[in-house]
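ok so I'm stuck.
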Amino acid sequence: MSDVVRMATREDADEIIRLLNLMHSENAMMPLSEECAHEFFERAFEKRGGIIGVIGEKGDIRAMIMLLITHFWYTKDFHLEEVFNFVRPDHRKSNYARDLIAFARECSDKTKLPLMIGVLTNNRMEGKVRLYRRALGYPAGAFFVYGANWTEAEPSNEDFWKTPFPNRPKRRAIGR
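replied:
not stuck anymore, here's the structure
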């Protein structure tokens, strides 16, 4: 596994909740329940289908990612699903977001499960989408959220779909 990212333990729970509060204040569409979050994080601490990777020492977590081992409603085949990928504001000029994505890919490779990971936000999307595209390739779809009360009142007005893809493979015309 990654040299930078370590598996979180129950001893990290208070620090993870502290970062969850930061993440929620920046990018939430529903109220926070720390009780629900603690119950959810137990899946990782008890190794019941959850993985939390963190960067930083105990008491000073700088970045974190959570993955679930789950399946779609129509199949019994499992996949890894990203729940969150968060870097503390004072460490956003680091490579931590890239390291967390690499950790998720390593988890996918190690478990041999497909990884479903993405960006669900309404602010500063362009840079986030570019980062994910560089690390993972083309996106597979888009999310639309109707009727939510986001923390950030004004959504991004970025046209990141037209941003050129680095090292984009040449496409052949259909029928040739």
